[in-house]
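Letters spell out the chain; backbone shape is given numerically. Take this protein:
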Amino acid sequence: MSKLKLISIVIFVCLLVLTVELIASSKPHKNDNQYELLKEYRFTQEEMNFIINYQIDPEKIKPYLQFETFRVYNFFFYENIRTKYQLSYLETINTYNFPNYYNYDTIPTLAIFTNTPLVLVNKHFFLLKSYYPKNLVNVNTRNITYIKRPNEEMYLQKEALENFDKLYQEAKNEGFELVIFSGFRPYHKQQELYYETFGMDNSISAKPGHSEHQTGLAIDVSTLKHGLTDYFALSQEYLWLEKNAYRFGYILRYPKDKEHITGYQFEPWHFRYVGVEHAKIIYEQNLTLEEYLFKTFELK
């Protein structure tokens, strides 16, 4: 046999072996134990093939299975995000699903957790023009001091009003006279303020649909002396609110040094009802509503 022919045969055999290996690698490398484990997790056949083909350890997938929006085909994207930014598995899922969660210069997204005390409304998440909260109650049904305006009533959601009433009475018993300046504000009223009163200044007023006042869960509260100014932050009333509001389910919505997260400058008068249980955690961990939701719940 000639040397040239021998070389040709060797090359052919090598190519054949390589071809066989490539064909084999395109099929699932079935490991019985691994396969049974995947079946236990209720993956589809296609998903199991994907996991086995890419030799993904099922144990590394396991922490993600608790999340409804988890998709096995995104596994490598999830892991890249998690390891790069040192995030929890929940934060990883939320980052993948809402990459612009903290980016207020992108296309707005419909509000999440609507019809709950945790509804998120900010410069990125918005409410529809037609959104109108249920269970609105007139503030005048309670013995609370509030600003009365001509041809205008003030409302809050029932639960928010009931809890603010408790807050108000305790503050009053300690010598603090609080005043509500604003409560529920419908879309059309916010539209009027934004375009006519504040001249579309985003630093002063929220765009229509992006105001928390449309939820019926937000209040602007201060004193007659200080009004809605930064001077309120220097008052004893504010200091009392800052330390006690959470006990009644309210949080300081736009705290100092969190502007890059909330999108708004510090507003000592703007408080938001989220419920006692949630407010306690937010207060104790020094979080904003955005941070709390992102770290605690799967965002969908």
About this structure: Strands lie at 109-110, 125-126, 136-138, 155-157, 179-182, 218-222, 250-252, 270-273. The chain has three domains: 1-29, 31-97, 109-296. The domain at 109-296 is CATH 3.30.1380.10 (Muramoyl-pentapeptide Carboxypeptidase; domain 2).
